[in-house]
Structures are given as C-alpha cells and as structure tokens.
Amino acid sequence: MYRLLYDFAEEREGAFQLIVSDHVNLRDEPWFVAAIVEEWRNGRALIPETWRPRDGS
C-alpha cells in the first residue's frame, strides 16, 4: 500500500502532496526513507504539546 501511494505521488512530479499518518517504519526500504519529511517521534508531534488546553482535554 505504501509503495502504491509513493509511486502515485512520484508520478505527479511534486504536483501532489500526500500526508499519511501511521506508525509504519520501513527503514529497510530506501524509497520510504527518502520520502520522509517529518518524523513525529520522541516528543515531536503533529500537534505540539503547547497547543493543548491546560485542562488536559
């Protein structure tokens, strides 16, 4: 599935942005590693902790 998404975006030569939120980590696949722009792990998150309400909700 990830290779299909990658190939689809590559065929559009930068004219298509694809955002996938998942926990997959295909470090043995060079095409996958090269496609990573942001890696949200170890305290880095799509929604920063400072954006959360103080009441914890």
Tally of separate domains: 1
SSE ordering: HH
Strands, count:
0
- Average pLDDT taken over every residue: 84
Low-confidence runs = none
From the N-terminal CA to the C-terminal CA, the straight-line distance is: 34 Å
Structural class by SSE content: mainly alpha
Kindly estimate the percentage of residues that lie in beta strands according to DSSP: under 5%
Give an overview in words.
The protein is mainly alpha-helical and 57 residues long. The chain has one domain (2-51). The chain has helices at residues 2-11, 30-35. The radius of gyration is 15 Å and the shape is elongated. The termini are far apart. The model has no long low-confidence stretch (mean pLDDT 84).
Gist?
It is built from two helices and no strands. It is mainly alpha-helical.
Characteristics:
mainly alpha; 57 residues; single chain
Which SSEs are present, and which pair or pack?
Blueprint: H1 2-11, H2 30-35
